[in-house]
Design goal:
The structure holds two protein chains of two kinds.
Chain A lengths: L1 H18 L3 H21 L3 H25 L9 H20 L15 H7 L1 H30 L1
Helix pairs in contact in A: 1-2, 1-4, 2-3
Chain B lengths: L2 H18 L3 H25 L4 H31 L4 H16 L1
Helix pairs in contact in B: 1-2, 2-3
The chains are: A mainly alpha, B mainly alpha.
């Protein structure tokens, strides 16, 4: 039962994140999506991924929240509660196929299996390359910000 | 409950937002939803097959996801500071008018 409620909540919060015009509410809906997906992972037994998703997702959302507060324009016209409730109903309806239908499963004979720690150790090269990508992106971002600041001063 | 259908639903919502919304912040939220849908598919299929490799790949995929978010954030902040708006339609108009001004 808990999985079905989480799935319905996930779809509803995703719909609201897209629908709501006010950026703050939209970010709060996305935060609900991240929390619910972490819960879904935890319930399914993938605790490591749940913890990582929760930590990274909420870290990103904190930045989202601050930037949406700084950058978004205040809306003059607010959307009616009726439309929001309609979107909630639509989200609930959209979650029904996931709850009540099921696709046929495909049996595979792939025998790649190892423990979590072993698999992480085996993929350490890929991890290092991706960490390098993160460093490069951060460096690029800082360079762009500094360039813009210098251009603004001159 | 079928996670593939749930993942497809989230993917559809993300694509809808990507195609219909004009604010850069909304586009960023749509991309996040698409990333969540893809990763959910990965993890829950791997967990249903009792394979740990799917979880490990997802943790590595978070890295690229964070990079993507950082790049779009940089674009958002620069567009907002330089042009004073996050609306992609207004940004396209400003870009066009800037090009015409340079031609003259």
């Amino acid at each position: 039962m808990i999985l079905e409620v989480v799935a319905a909540g996930l779809v509803i919060s995703a719909c609201l994140a897209i629908y709501l015009e006010e950026a703050i509410y939209s970010v709060v809906s996305l935060a609900c999506t991240v929390i619910l997906i972490s819960l879904l992972y935890a319930v399914n037994g993938t605790v490591y991924v749940a913890v990582f998703q929760f930590a990274i997702g909420l870290g990103t959302l904190a930045v989202f929240f601050l930037s949406s507060e700084m950058l978004s324009e205040k809306l003059k016209k607010e959307k009616s509660t009726r439309n929001t409730l309609l979107i909630v109903a639509l989200g609930t309806f959209m979650s029904f196929p996931a709850i009540f239908l099921s696709l046929p499963t495909i049996q595979t004979n792939i025998s790649i299996d190892s423990s979590f720690v072993q698999a992480l150790w085996n993929l350490r090269a890929l991890d290092i390359v991706l960490q390098g990508l993160v460093m490069l992106t951060v460096a690029l971002g800082i360079a762009i910000v500094l360039y813009e600041r210098k251009r603004g001063e001159s | 409950m079928d996670y593939v259908i749930l993942s497809i639903t989230l993917l559809a919502i993300g694509f809808y937002g990507l195609l219909t919304k004009h604010s850069l912040l909304k586009i960023l939220i749509s991309i996040e939803l698409i990333a969540i849908a893809a990763s959910m598919n990965f993890v829950l299929l791997a967990s249903s097959l009792n394979k740990n490799l799917g979880e490990v790949f997802l943790i590595l995929a978070f890295t690229t996801d964070t990079c993507l978010t950082a790049v779009i954030f940089a674009l958002l902040i620069i567009a907002s500071k330089r042009y004073g708006t996050c609306d992609i339609r207004k940004l396209a108009k400003l870009e066009k008018s800037g090009e015409e001004g340079e031609d003259e």
